[in-house]
Amino acid sequence: MSMIEKNELVKRLEHISHNSYLPEQDRETIKDTISVLQSMIQKDFRKTVSSVEKLRETISGDFYIVEEVAEMFGISVQSVYKWIKLGKIHVEQFAAPGGTKYLIPKEQFKSPKYQKQIESVKRTKEALARVKPVVDEPSDLYPVTAEDDMEELDVK
Question: Helices H, strands E: what count in the chain?
Answer without folding.
Answer: 6, 3
